[in-house]
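Retro notes, structure queue

What went well: the backlog is down to a handful. What didn't: a couple of records were mislabeled last round, so from now on we paste the full input next to the output in the thread. Example, using Gfo/Idh/MocA-like oxidoreductase C-terminal domain-containing protein from Saitozyma podzolica:
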Amino acid sequence: MDLYYPPPNPTSSPLHVTLRASIMSPLPKQLRFQIKGSRGTFIKHGLDPQGDFREELARGKRVEDVPGYGVEKEEDWGTVWVAEEERDGAVFRSEVDARRKAVKQDAVARVHSNRRWFPADLLRRIKSEPGNYPALYSNLYDAITSKDPGRLAVKPEEAVQVLRLIELGVRSSREGRVLDV
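Corresponding output:
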């Protein structure tokens, strides 16, 4: 799915967002998110760790009673590179090449992008927030039993907006054209 956003001001470029999903991949560490911009890139691998606790929750344990529930291993944290200023890919690649030569091999990070190895000082690991899917269902239960939809963490109108975007994506694909939102 491709999303097009108008420029926020006359001197900016329009924003083009591409969303792709697939369960078919032979890679041992699945790419979950890749966000690229003119000032940086964020890459995230790995599965949501909440699935690892299904059996314990099915046996009636509460999230609060399961140590480490929803907490990712450090190896699955996201990786971000942020530029101090906007630059194009050619300038970025030349800077990476120059820094790579200046940095000893043992300082090279094991993150690969655009078939280049980045020096460690250009990257930062981002710790993921712990997940808690059961809290969403508890919130739904609370809103229903209290008869107060204002308590919902996800408002009905927000869910409708997401469903509308999905339906527009399907229609756009079927018709082979860009649709206005």
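Agreed that this is the format going forward. Reviewer comment attached to the example: The chain has a mean pLDDT of 78.
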